[in-house]
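Quarterly update from the structural biology core.
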Amino acid sequence: MQAAEIMTTQVVAVAPDTPLREIARLLLEHGISAVPVVDAGGAPIGMVSEGDLISRNDAEREARRDWWLALMAEGEELHPDFLATLRQPQQTARDVMAAPVVTVSESTEARVIAGLLSAHHVKRVPVVHDGRLVGIVSRADLLRAFAAEPAPAAPEQRSRASSLIAAALASLDEHFLPSKHSTSAEGVAADAAPAAGGVTAADFLGLVTEFEHLKAERSDQGRHAAAERRRQALTALIDRHVVDESWKALLHSARQAAERGEKETMLLRFPSDLCADGGRAINAPLPEWPKTLRGDAAEIYLRWERDLKPQGFHLAARVLDFPGGMPGDIGLFLVWG
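Predicted structure, tokenized:
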């Protein structure tokens, strides 16, 4: 079962400059707990949930949810004690949104989506087509789809699929701590056994080759064909996901780099087209560059932020080349020096 079969297509989305008061009104009006933030081209660049608007205290939030949304939306004066726990209503979606955001395509399998929800501790993922938001898949959508799915011919196949999806969804309800990685190369290696497959630099270098073909083809028909190949390749990159095995392989490569006396390693090389702004924020560089990441790059950033940043590792992004004077390929580097 794929995302296109289970996603919600009537998605309430907001622009980056939408005031929090308006977002509060939308959450209340539609009975939802979060909205995606999309840019002018319709690409998702973040998520804003009710937890981004008010205190993270669960009991307080549940007790006050309806009336605080109504008060914010209607513009009434708020009690000073309540204001002490509430973000500034004059802020916008851009100020509080969670970014970068993990996305999937219409063809992403339900079991993969369940794994993403579990791996990144989120409750929903936007679905994109040609980079534009076309739907959203939530934990509730997965549960409904799983409950309605007919049993396959082989019972053991359903049993295995059941355990995979159920385990991923159940993990979202647990409170667990980040993985305990050591800051030493040996500590990284202990949790990072080498794994086959996953993301390779060759995948991205293939995109560079396609770009060179695009420049070389002179005719309108040739340029169109090359551009279509590049678009399809970018779509495939956006729909690929950093699974545990490939993440371990990346950490194993980092350990090998440390053994060679190096103080950093490149985790990912990807075309600047994969960034929401074409790589401009990374080239500047601007502090909000992580919010522009999409696809594998966004997932690697979120993995680093959760697992490795607390252990003293840094993540850097650099433009690697400038074809025609514009940002070309970009590298994500894990730094421990």
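Confidence is low (pLDDT under 50) at residues 172-199.
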